[in-house]
Amino acid sequence: MITSAHRADQKVLKIAELNRLKRQLRAEFVDTGTTLMRMKLESSIRDKVKTKGLNPSKTPPQKIKVTVKKD
After folding, report:
1. Which domain range does residue 30 map to?
2. How far is the C-alpha of 56 from the C-alpha of 59, rounded, in Å?
3. Quick one: CA torsion of 41, 46, 48, 52, rounded to 10 degrees?
4. How many domains, the chain?
5. Closest Cα to residue 48, out of 59, 58, 38?
6. 66 lies in some domain
7. 64: in domain
8. What is the pLDDT of residue 33?
9. Using CA atoms, how far apart are residues 25 and 33, in angstroms rounded to an integer?
10. Which whole number is the average pLDDT over 1-12?
11. Is the pLDDT of residue 71 over 80?
12. Which of these, 41, 18, 37, 17, lies nearest to 29 by C-alpha position?
């Protein structure tokens, strides 16, 4: 009976520890996703490449059409 109670207590403690770890990892995942989204914003990319001498294009991109002639 006592052994059974001790094992139950151990399992409860283990579950509590795993839940704490799960919450911690979930928070880290959300923080990393938020940081990634900020890094992918056009304004932050534009600021980073401006220091390297790249600027946005003044003219819009043009479509390239490819026609294939069938013989």
Report:
1. 2-50
2. 9
3. 160
4. 1
5. 38
6. no
7. no
8. 96
9. 12
10. 91
11. no
12. 37
Q: How far apart are CA 5 and CA 12, in angstroms?
A: 11
Has residue 70 been placed in a domain?
A: no
CA distance 39 to 49: 12
What integer pLDDT is reported at residue 21 of this predicted model? Answer: 98
- Helices marked H in 1-71 — which ranges? 2-40, 42-50
For residue 27, the model assigns a pLDDT of 98
Give tens-digit pLDDT for 34-60: 999 999 998 899 888 989 988 888 899
Token match 């220091």: residue? 51
Residue 24 lies in a domain: yes
Instruction: Name the token pair of 2.
Output: 């006592």
The confidence score (pLDDT) of residue 26 equals 98
